[in-house]
Amino acid sequence: MIKQSLATLFVLAAVTGCSMTPENPVDFVTYRNQPLVKQVETGMTMQQVITIGGTPSSVVNGTANSSAGTCNNYILTQDSHQQAYYVSFDSGGHVASKGFMTCEQRKTNEKAM
Fold first, then answer.
1. Which of 21-30, 34-43, 46-55, 81-90 has the lowest mean pLDDT?
2. Does the pTM exceed 0.90?
3. How many angstroms separate the Cα of 91 from the Cα of each of 62, 70, 99?
4. What secondary structure does DSSP assign to 62-74, as a single string?
5. Hey, what domains does the chain have and what are their CATH numbers?
6. What gap in Å lies between CA 51 and CA 79, rounded to an integer?
């Protein structure tokens, strides 16, 4: 049992270390069945995302990598807990990235790299 737990922890640490955005793997496990997390894929149109996730909490002009495009902030709710989630769109209106933080946090992280 201990070996399996350590192996799982190692894999999670390796995957988290390789990603560009530091995110908590527990967020994915907790919110994985939310429509935005489960169904939204890179390349989808903004209208498809809005159909899946509804109207965003806020829309931010520009993305982490450029001043073109937009980024939608959402609030996911699961068992009375809330979690920020963003979906950014390129200048053509297609999903460029998504994750468990706000658009503003994503911009800050990208500028720091």
1. 21-30
2. no
3. 9, 8, 19
4. S-SS-SSSEEEEE
5. 22-112 (3.30.1450.10)
6. 23
